[in-house]
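Working notes for the structural subgroup meeting. M.R. asked for a predicted model of this chain before we commit to crystallization trials. I am recording the input and output together here so anyone reviewing the notebook later can reproduce the run.

Input as submitted:
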Amino acid sequence: MLGSPLVMISCISNKPTDPLHYQGRMIVVGSGGGFAGEERQYRMLDNGQLYVGNPSDSSFVFMHAKSKRRAAKWLTAFDSMGVIQLDFNHPGNTYQYLETGDGGKRVVWGSKSEKPEVTITDFYKQFMAYWVYSRQKDHSN
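Returned structure, recorded in token form:
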């Protein structure tokens, strides 16, 4: 009985990490534009931590953490979309994007006339619902 909580705790890392210099894998999701032209970016690290911030001023804050196993499942789903191979840059007045965390390609959409594949916009919506709007910690592996 005592071993179970310790295992559960070890699966979630709450020790703050610098998401701008993180050496592991990550998914970067964001949006921007509008009147103020500001950008909001979320960085989900492969250790299960989620950060939010403004990439123009490098101010990121820790939001919460979920399990490493859950983060791995999201990274696998992200990889399966082939975002790294896409060349899509069609922002509108407001825009959303997905990108690899290694400074790789960025898929940007927002234009009313050009839309990315539905798998990309669905991934974005599901990511936001699960990682951003659902603030409960996930203790599942």
